[in-house]
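We store chain and fold; thus.
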Amino acid sequence: MKAINTAALAPLTASRSFRSRENILLLLLKLRTFIALFLILGFFTFTVSGFLATESILIMLKHISINAFLALGITFVIITAGIDLSIGATLGLCGMFAGWMITHGIVLPMFGIAIFPSVWVIVPAVLVLGGLIGAVNGWIITRYNVAPFICTLGTMYIVRGAAMLLSNGETFPGLDGNPRLGNTGFDFIGSGSLLGVPYCIWLMFVLALIIAYIARRLPFGRHVYAIGDNERAAELSGIKVKQVKIWVYTISGLCAAVAGIVVTSQLVASHPATGTSFEMNAIAAVVLGGTSLAGGRGTIVGTLIGAFVIGILADGLVMMGVSEFWQMVIKGMVIIVAVIIDQMQNRMQHKAAIVSQKIVKEEAATE
């Protein structure tokens, strides 16, 4: 019969107990977005009359969808340890571009005419514009090794200025089009519904499914996570890091364009200041959803839940009559807390990995 060294087993038992406690706390941190969502829903349900009425829910979901479009697009960027501060400005410029095409058309001076494209041309053109802005961001960042924060900050000012120049700072109103010009139907994107649910809500879930599929099922998604985890190792393994990063920022620009189309269609008007500070809400949703600012970790489901938390919090505070100034304070606090929790999770995961290695060594020593 083999003798068992009980003295050697004592530290092993203590290590396992510590790992068990750490795992429980780590699980709670990973589920923080769901916990926050249920707490916020419960709070506003009991404090705001009619909060869960069907009409209120649909209005909240329409507001959430705008932030979700931006957050879903920027998730890939943050997973690669990047940032995109230009998505709010891109939203505004894309909306202005759509308004300009509907209001003024495409002028051809050499022929003395103006072509008024249909909505089937306007929407793809706006998407191309958003994608190009994102691609330029990615190209500058990878080609000249510019910090994403600085590059997208500069792009934000350029794009916002371009939106102002497009209309000299004025609004393009009445974007329902003219039947004689054949450019009607743009407003239907924001006002139409399917089975009683607005199109933008359907689009939000469809886009989330597409991006989640890309993230988990396609090689591109695995490359994005690999770059965020260790860019140098990803490059040595054969991943085309620069190309992936350009596509990541292109996707961010495309999603911002989608948000711009939806917002402009809902308002039936476009203003160059539309989308100001929207990037902050999107980043807050992504970080709150569990995506690490250090890169390499994050989920699309988490981002979507984070967008719900931010959206429900904002609308709930409005329904309670809370001042807009206090809303800004609360949103800022949410962002700071989310980052602190993210750092805690990173440290705990690192510590858990060290403890696991220690347990393996101790088990090997007791054999």
About this structure: The two ends are 14 Å apart (CA to CA).
